[in-house]
Specification:
Length: 145
Amino acid sequence: MNPSRPGAALRTWSTGLFHCMDDPGNCLITCLCPCITFGQIADIVDKGTCSCIASGLIYGLICASTGMGCLYSCLYRSRLRAEYDLQEGECPDFLVHCCCEHLALCQEYRELKNRGYDLGIGKRLLCFSLELPQAVPWWPSCGVG
């Protein structure tokens, strides 16, 4: 049972950890720049409270400065599992991320995609929900209105 939701039955992941080639585009992006995939995942898991760019930058800075971005990203895997009542599997989240960081990010990306999220734009079109003060004339227009 998942401690975050008493009585909730745990579900299996929609794809396996080693099924990266189910989405070759994401696999390539994650291999070249995992901070992009992490930012997309964090944007959804955080429900938009921290932007994709900010989350990706934090992850990238942790990776560049300590090489231990896996300790940060495993927290998001745990939150994703709690949100969707997903099984932990044979290994704890921190071990999956420390040993198979790129595979774990790809699996989390596919899980959210299979649940209907468009990870390219997050949960919503930010362009239409963003309200900027008039004092920012250099900000690009969304072409609305």
